Amino acid sequence: MAEQLGVSLRTYQRYEAGDTEPCFDTLVCIADILGLSTDWLLGRLPLTSAGEWKKGLRGHPTAQQNR
User: Fold this and answer.
1) Residue 34: inside a domain
2) Is residue 38 assigned to a domain?
3) What is the pTM assigned to this prediction?
4) Residues 2, 15, 43: CA angle, nearest 5 degrees
């Protein structure tokens, strides 16, 4: 994922740990890679179930590489 975003592994790990937040452009890239909306990533738009999130990932070719 870090490579796809064009950031170092350490930077990506800091995003995941909550030590730092990605800039807007990186957030948009994360949403695109995962096949999700930025609203969902920001907690503004709930998915009705975890199954919807997984279904969204299955349909996105880039996300398939991250499993």
Assistant:
1) yes
2) yes
3) 0.65
4) 115
